[in-house]
């Protein structure tokens, strides 16, 4: 039987089958080379003791072997990466954008491709005029040292403090990483610029009483500026936390505000009195004027009627004098006599009054 076909007494040696086992075997060989267990006496094929000549390149070979092992381990370790939920991976190949990977396990070429992980679901925020010290259900804020961020000048030359917060998310990881060097600082600068411009175009009272309109306009303009700069972010909320006059002028402002409220109250009361009295007076005046017009029309019509009647009587009198005179006398007596209680008949030849029969009906005597 040939010697090549004969098995050694210790049997077949198990060879490594996976990269992990190969790497483990290399590490074990490096460890054995340092401890001297890889070349013990008696393990040689010769029967007698082996004499080994010193090798000057043995140390260099060990260093090279360690270097190769480290490189292999690093290549295996950096070839695979995991993207967590809510993140994306931006891969550069030779410094140029290559692809964007979603959540899961992925592979990249070591030393050629570079990975940067970006959380696109986290809501980032920038605070102006204050800082959150202890977030939670009852958050505490620190306002000391941030007065210059909040001080602004309104359109009517008044000083006001405006504290606000900006919240945003990343929508384009490539623009976020490589178009702008420092996106949070850009968001701060752009937000402060937009807010100061809007407040500077409004009056003091308008800013105090219209914070929702102010926040909406600032959010819209801020998003426009960030899109123009290709920052890759989207503003989700811009809220005005506090709008007040500066602390040194608050007492004077409160007095002015109270005086303004009193003035508005008095003006409202005056308008209420005006609306109650003036329309009534105007109605009464109009009523009197209308009554005067009616009275004038009535008197004119009555006068015209009397004139027409007198004219017709004159015409009849000229045509029929005696008859008209008698008729006029009888009509006058018909109107006068019902109102006369006693009638006295006078005789032109009589020297004294003639007693006239009492024609007044006597009242009936009461029955017993």
CATH class of the largest domain: Alpha Beta
Number of helices: 9
**N-to-C span:** 186 Å
| Main pleated-sheet profile | 4 strands, antiparallel
The overall strand count is 11
Helix content: 40-55%
Radius of gyration: 59 Å
Instruction: Give the overall shape.
Output: rod-shaped
Listing every helix as H and every strand as E from the N terminus to the C terminus, the arrangement reads HHEEEEEEEEHEEHHHHEHH
Mean pLDDT: 80
Kindly estimate the percentage of residues that lie in beta strands according to DSSP. Answer: 15-25%
CATH architecture of the largest domain: 2-Layer Sandwich
Q: Could you state the CATH homologous superfamily of the largest domain?
A: Band 7 domain
Which stretches are low in confidence, meaning pLDDT under 50 for 5 or more residues running? Answer: 1-12, 39-53
> Structural class of the secondary elements?
alpha+beta
Give the tally of structural domains.
Answer: 3
What is the CATH topology descriptor of the largest domain? Tetrahydropterin Synthase, Chain A
Task: Summarize the structure in words.
The protein is built from 9 helices and 11 strands. The protein is of the alpha+beta class. The protein has 3 domains: 15-35 and 61-118, no CATH class; 124-245, Tetrahydropterin Synthase, Chain A, CATH 3.30.479; 254-343. Strands 6, 9, 10 and 11 form a 4-stranded antiparallel sheet that branches. Strands 3-2-5 form a 3-stranded antiparallel sheet, with no helix packed on it. A hairpin with a 5-residue loop joins strand 9 (151-153) and strand 10 (159-170). The longest helix has 70 residues, at 250-319. The protein is rod-shaped, with a radius of gyration of 59 Å. The model is unreliable at 1-12 and 39-53 (pLDDT under 50).
